[in-house]
Amino acid sequence: MKKMKKFLCSLLACLLVILAVPVSAEAAVKAPVCPKTQVLQYYRACMNNTQQPIGGYGYIFIKNLAKNATITNVKSSNKNYTATRAKGLNAIDVVQTQKSIRNFKYDVKDGESTKLSFTVKQNGKSYRLSCKVIFKAHEPVFKTFKLGSKDLTSLTSGYWMLLYNKVPKKGKVKVQIQTTKNYKIDSITVTYRNGDKYTSKKIKNGAKVSLKNAMSLYVDYHTTVKPKYYRKPSSDYVGYFFGGYVESPLYESFSLVMM
């Protein structure tokens, strides 16, 4: 009986040692990690054939970032940019500093960069991370963007909003929109104005519609390419993209203003 007890104790001790190994390995993996380099694409608005100034922006997603983690001691090599913890995301939000926002003449340049370093505090520990951010003009989203005989494809490239009032207003025109390989259309909506009343109508791609009294056409879409370390937002995420709410950072929209 004593030998049996010794054997069972020895077996239990071995099991505890074996079980402790993956726990230690898992704990080591839990350290937060961010990309060494991150390219952030920015959109512009085009009004009256003029590009509107805009700053760089976007998210850097962090692997193993705890929900209650805090981001402190942010340093940026480019004085025009900083970063904050993004609510509802495993990411930091790269934004312009208040000083550069107040300077309406400031405009992001293609290829502009900054090196961000910051401290992640979570689970009683602190981790110093850094990431080089490079801002690039947004790649084309639409392979084809036609309203009847009007081909606006080249005009939409790199923009979230385009003011264009030369679309056909008589009869019905065929709406033909095709995205490039990394994007998919979710919906197309036309908004009409009749006096003081506004109505919105969702249409099918390829449908023929009247653009008489049309104020705008919205194309909601999402990218099929997820950023490195991307994780689905939590319930407290509130996404916003140039005038509208979105369910995640993967979703965006294009606005054609026809006034």
Topology:
Layout: H1 2-29, E1 37-42, E2 44-47, E3 50-51, E4 58-61, E5 70-76, E6 81-85, E7 91-96, H2 98-102, E8 113-122, E9 125-137, E10 142-147, E11 150-151, H3 153-156, E12 159-163, E13 172-179, E14 183-194, E15 197-203, E16 208-210, E17 214-223, E18 239-241, E19 244-246, E20 251-257
Parallel strand pairs: 1-9, 2-12, 12-20
Antiparallel strand pairs: 2-3, 4-7, 5-8, 6-7, 8-9, 10-11, 10-13, 13-16, 14-15, 14-17, 17-20, 18-19
Can you characterise this structure?
The protein contains three helices and 20 strands. By secondary structure, the protein is mainly beta. The N terminus is likely disordered. It starts with a helix and ends with a strand. The protein is elongated. The protein is 14% helix and 47% strand.
Total beta-strand segments: 20
Estimate the mean pLDDT confidence: 89
Identify low-pLDDT runs. Answer: 1-9, 11-19, 23-27
Structural class: mainly beta
Radius of gyration in whole Å, from Cα?
Answer: 25 Å
Across the major sheet, the strand order is 3-2-12-20-17-14-15
Question: Which range does the strand content fall in?
Answer: over 45%
> From the structure provided, what is the oligomeric state, counting identical versus distinct chains?
single chain
Helix and strand sequence: HEEEEEEEHEEEEHEEEEEEEEE
* Spatial gap, N to C terminus: 92 Å
**Main sheet specs:** 7 strands, mixed
Helix content: 10-25%
Q: Report the principal-axis shape.
A: elongated
Number of helices: 3
